[in-house]
Amino acid sequence: MIYDINNLIIRNRKSRGADMPKKDKPGSAVTLAGKHIVLGVAGGIAAYKSAELVRALVKKGAVVRVMMTANACRFVGPMTFEALSGNPVCRDLWAGGEETAIPHIEWAGQADAVVIAPATANMIGKLANGIADDALSTFMMAVTSPVLVCPSMNTNMYQNRAVQRNLAILRKDGYEVLEPGTGELACGTSGAGRMPEPDIIVDRLCRLLTPKDMAGKKVLVTAGPTRESIDPVRFISNHSSGRMGYALARAAEYRGAEVTLISGPVNLEPPVNVAVVPVQTAAEMAGETLARVAASHIIVKVAAVGDYRAREVAAQKIKKGGRPELVLHLEENPDILKEIGRKKKKQILVGFAAETQALVKNARTKLAEKNADLIVANIVSGKDSAFGSDTNEVCLLFKDGREERLPRQDKERLAHVLLDRILELS
Ligand code: PMT
Question: Is residue 415's pLDDT more than 80?
Fold first, then answer.
């Protein structure tokens, strides 16, 4: 690799990972591994966050190339992006001399997606009006892949009529425009205009690259544990982290579904663009879930619902009081899945079965008893427990008697495979 350190334009362009294979199979989870992402950095203070964005993209296995405007270089040096991406940065189409290949055409042809972050008022105006007067804006004329535009600027600038008009043009032209965050801005004011955090941009990029085969579907997912109080300070619960359910909700949203997630108490970030309804108890989960069944096309019950609750919740903390043992009286909670199974009309109903023994036999009983279309059976004890782990190994039991074992895989990928199977049922 030969490049001019002053101009940082590559001459014999074979960048890091440029020949990596594409890894996604149709219908499977979209990953950024091996994807060619061009990051366009325009001249805004949020350019420092773009360095973090490069790191996040590289961590996901993407091949990242950065284009910077001259103003962007005043905020962050190109060397930072060069070091983080492992690839030369392009900031001037003429810097490489006459024998240089045409980077804006070559990079545009190879890009799986383009992110403009920060997108300044000036760059948004150029994109909306077809102005190509520097490396980045010229490159954008040649791009045919999906583009994510991340506006970032002072609130008054963002709300300016011309900027809003230009953003409307970009949306109409098929660009994906990410709403800026609201809060304290670098210019000392507060309001809309913050560049979203890098993990949000990466998340939206994954969505942008995912085929929308669930568009028009309303999906209801339950996730996490429930909590049943026994007194004001203690409760009965289980080890569900919510990861499996959140992965399903996120995957369905990536695929274009309108998703509602009824969630027990978990320690996870809510998936973007998903309506999250927080609940604590099984009774609350039952109420919120059953109220939405009629309006849903697909219902996936991943939540680990407590089967029992305390018959009486003590008004004050239960004291030890010298007792050698304490007996709690429990009563049964509503079986939400069973109730939906009774009520459902055309909905696809998917339940999970959390077992510690006789996995398939017990799960098959649940499939029949709860009138589900599919039961996803997993083990929740020992070293392979599905509780809290990043991966899961499941056996699918279909209503028509089919059985399919899926290999252990991370929950994000598994979520997409489950959605593939669910779509085959609809
Ligand atoms: O959250 P994670 O840490 O990622 O872990 C994922 C998981 C282990 C929680 C998940 O993969 C799983 O197995 N979820 C189902 C947990 C459970 O309650 O299983 P069950 O076999 O007890 O119940 C069978 C089905 O009936 C489930 O779909 C459950 O949501 C539903 N149910 C159970 C009891 C009840 N009162 N109402 C219900 O709707």
Answer: yes
* The residue type at 182: T
Please name the amino acid found at residue 370. Answer: K
Ligand 1 mean position, distance from CA 225 (Å): 8
Which DSSP symbol is given to 87?
Answer: S
Between CA 103 and CA 337 the distance in angstroms is 56
Residue at token pair 């300016």: 160
Enter the pTM of the model. 0.91
Atom number of ligand 1 nearest to Cα 243: 4
> How does DSSP classify residue 279?
-
Angstrom distance (rounded) from CA 120 to CA 150: 9
Residues found in the chain: 426
| Spatial contact of 267 and 304, defined as CB atoms under 8 Å apart | no
Residue at token pair 């008022």 = 121
Mean local confidence (pLDDT), 167-177:
98
- Residues 394 and 305: their CA atoms lie apart, in Å, by 19
Q: Which secondary-structure segment (H or E) carries 157?
A: helix 155-159
144: left (phi over 0), alpha (psi -120 to 50) or beta: alpha
What's 134's DSSP letter? S
3-state secondary structure of 191: strand
Give me ligand 1 centre to Cα 363, in Å. 11
Pick from 126-135, 185-194, 297-306, 368-377: least confident: 185-194
- Count each helix (H run) and each strand (E run) in the chain, helices first: 14, 22
pLDDT tens profile 340-375:
999 999 999 999 999 999 999 999 999 999 999 999
Bridge partner list, 379: 355
Q: Report the separation in Å between the CA atom of 223 and the middle of ligand 1, taken as the mean of its atom positions.
A: 8
Question: Which residues are tagged catalytic?
Answer: 187
How far apart CA 423 and CA 348 sit, in angstroms, is 9
Nearest of 421, 426, 418, 375 to residue 399 by alpha carbon: 375
Is ligand 1 within 6 A of the CB of residue 226?
no
- Dist CA 88 CA 368 (whole Å): 59
